[in-house]
């Protein structure tokens, strides 16, 4: 789960730039002061029409990404170590693309910020980008990964 600041900006990034489908959203409250909305996204197209069935399906869908918007605006943010430019406190998500170079080229029209392009660094062929809230996303080719 990633906490987000602006649902419209984040949803646009994940659905338009990365091609995920919004499976469902749910607005919940632990009490009258703490309302939040969860958005479930995945690479999927067969979404149930019935609202209750869709909600349960989205919450149990393998590989779904959960973005959470806290209505109060109180978002605990991850920190980055400036010296090493590595995230601390949170890990990152990864997505697969059979052609990482082509996929990264398609992201340029969305003005995506790259931490590492596929032709840079020690490990060639994978990339790291930032989502609108500064979370790292790794893009890798599932057919070019080696076992340890």
UniProtKB/TrEMBL annotation:
Alphabetical keyword list: Lyase
Signal peptide location: none
A Pfam cross-reference name: Glyoxalase
Transmembrane segments: none
InterPro entries according to UniProt: Glyas_Bleomycin-R_OHBP_Dase, Glyas_Fos-R_dOase_dom, VOC_core
Highest taxon in the source lineage: Eukaryota
Gene3D superfamilies to which the protein is assigned, alphabetical: 2,3-Dihydroxybiphenyl 1,2-Dioxygenase, domain 1 (3.10.180.10)
Lyase in keyword set: yes
Residue ranges of every copy of the VOC domain listed in the record: 1-142
Molecular-function GO term, any one: lyase activity
Coiled coil: none
CDD domains, alphabetized: GlxI_Zn
Stated name of the protein: Lactoylglutathione lyase
Annotated gene: Glo1
């Amino acid at each position: 789960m990633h906490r987000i600041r602006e649902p419209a900006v984040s949803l646009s990034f994940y659905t338009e730039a990365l091609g995920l489908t919004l499976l469902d959203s749910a607005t919940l409250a632990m009490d009258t002061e703490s309302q939040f909305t969860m958005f479930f996204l995945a690479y999927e197209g067969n979404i149930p029409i019935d609202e209750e069935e869709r909600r349960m399906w989205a919450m149990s869908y393998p590989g779904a990404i959960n973005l959470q918007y806290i209505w109060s605006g109180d978002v605990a943010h991850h920190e980055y170590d400036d010296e090493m430019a590595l995230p601390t406190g949170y890990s990152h998500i990864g997505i697969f693309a059979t052609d990482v170079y082509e996929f990264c080229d398609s992201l340029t029209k969305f003005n995506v910020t790259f931490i590492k392009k596929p032709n840079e660094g020690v490990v060639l062929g994978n990339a790291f980008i930032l989502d609108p809230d500064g979370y790292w996303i790794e893009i890798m080719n599932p057919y070019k990964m080696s076992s340890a």
